[in-house]
């Protein structure tokens, strides 16, 4: 914590991929999770649908936090804890990763002096504490300083920026957490995949929608929302996640044939809000799921040759991702997964949290 008092915290606001979040050094936050989470709710302005009294942007995609520290593991540079801060609820969840916020972790680590930048390209080895997985982020740092400018484009983000290449080495965890290529959940055929993000793949047509609807229209469809909730609550225990009523995993990704030359069109739920694009790790799970022979995705996808990059279409564009699957053994196993994202530093300074004990009146 800073010397200015418990409500003043050093913070960097960054855009990572198609998300935006507040990045903190672990040492600048309270060590007790409950105290830390209370502070973060006040920093983000939650609970309040507008988050008018904090940093949050009134949407799950802009109410995120990264907590970063130097790692004690010699094989890793930094540890990264992702926290999803509720918008209208006073909840802070560590039950999932975020691959978009992850795009800013490497640059943040250099900015805060946790990792020395190389002159040219810098790679930062990141342990994702939420799941224990490893990611390697590589980005330009000419002269030992992070360069955020470049020509890489990310659908859903205005303009261009420097590429951040994120590689996810295989960790040996089950790609199919239920042990089956297909399951029937709440009467609907699904494929449950975990290639970094527990995700349930569902053919949109099986829910009597096209999969091309506007996210806002899907959110307003109460009957669809009820069916998705039923599927998610039933899939959670099957995937080894236990009771998922109050969590944000598993994600649900509705699949439809592509319309812009990609592999598949998606509509992904967070779990209630429909993503205006798709998260990196959800896309990694979708891509791996499409490569599994007999999965529900193969009924709707148009796949390129094995080994080629997959283009995952979403409501505001696409995400290109490399996701290989080794099907030679008794069960399919994920191989190297890599994606190009961008990140940008928005501000660096001190954030002043809403005083404790003041509740939202919205």
Task: Write up what this structure looks like.
The protein is an alpha+beta fold. It has five helices and 16 strands. It has helices at about 35-45, 100-110, 215-220, 220-240, 280-290, and strands at about 10-15, 20-25, 65-70, 80-85, 90-95, 120-130, 135-140, 165-170, 185, 190-195, 200-205, 250-255, 265-270, 310-315, 315-325, 335-350. It has an eight-stranded mixed beta barrel. β9 and β10 form a beta hairpin.
Quick tags:
362 residues, alpha+beta, 16 strands, 16% helix, disordered N terminus, isomerase, EC 5.3.2.8, OMA_tautomer-like, 4-oxalomesaconate tautomerase
Annotation, overall tally of beta strands: 16
Unreliable parts: 1-5
- How would you classify the helix and strand content by structural class? alpha+beta
- Please list the strands of the largest sheet in the order they lie side by side: 1-2-3-4-6-7-8-16
Strand content: 25-35%
Global morphology: globular
Rounded radius of gyration (Å): 20 Å
Residue-averaged pLDDT: 93
Count of DSSP helices? 5
Which range best describes the helical content: under 10%, 10-25%, 25-40%, 40-55%, 55-70% or over 70%?
Answer: 10-25%
Order of helices and strands: EEHEEEHEEEEEEHHEEHEEE
What is the terminal-to-terminal distance? Answer: 29 Å
**Biggest sheet record:** 8 strands, mixed, barrel
Oligomer: single chain
């Amino acid at each position: 914590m800073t010397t200015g008092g418990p409500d003043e915290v050093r913070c960097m606001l960054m855009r990572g991929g198609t998300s935006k979040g507040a990045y903190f050094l672990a040492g600048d936050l309270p060590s007790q999770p409950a105290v830390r989470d209370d502070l973060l709710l006040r920093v983000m302005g939650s609970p309040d649908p507008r988050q008018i009294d904090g940093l949050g942007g009134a949407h799950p995609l802009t109410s995120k936090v990264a907590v970063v520290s130097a790692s004690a593991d010699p094989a890793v540079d930094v540890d990264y804890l992702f926290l999803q801060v509720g918008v209208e609820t006073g909840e802070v969840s560590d039950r999932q990763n975020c691959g978009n916020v992850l795009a800013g972790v490497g640059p943040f680590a250099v900015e805060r002096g946790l990792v020395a930048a190389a002159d040219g390209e810098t790679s930062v080895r990141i342990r994702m504490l939420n799941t224990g997985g490893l990611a390697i982020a590589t980005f330009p740092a000419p002269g030992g300083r992070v360069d955020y400018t470049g020509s890489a484009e990310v659908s859903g983000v205005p303009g261009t920026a420097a590429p951040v290449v994120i590689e996810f080495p295989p960790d040996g965890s089950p790609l199919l957490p239920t042990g089956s290529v297909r399951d029937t959940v709440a009467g609907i055929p699904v494929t449950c995949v975990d290639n970094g993000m527990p995700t349930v793949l569902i053919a949109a047509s099986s829910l009597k929608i096209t999969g091309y609807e506007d996210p806002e229209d899907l959110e307003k469809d109460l009957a669809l929302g009820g069916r998705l909730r039923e599927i998610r609550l039933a899939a959670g225990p099957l995937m080894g996640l236990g009771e998922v009523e109050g969590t944000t995993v598993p994600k649900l990704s509705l699949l439809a044939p592509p319309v812009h030359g990609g592999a598949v069109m998606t509509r992904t739920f967070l779990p209630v809000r429909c993503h205006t694009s798709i998260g990196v790790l959800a896309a990694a799970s979708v891509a791996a799921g499409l490569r599994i022979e007999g999965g529900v995705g193969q009924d709707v996808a148009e796949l390129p040759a094995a080994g080629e990059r997959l283009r995952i279409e979403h409501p505001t564009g696409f995400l290109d991702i490399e996701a290989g699957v080794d099907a030679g053994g008794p069960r399919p196993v994920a191989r190297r997964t890599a994606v190009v994202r961008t990140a940008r530093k928005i501000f660096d300074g001190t954030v002043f949290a809403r005083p404790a004990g003041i509740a939202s009146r919205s």
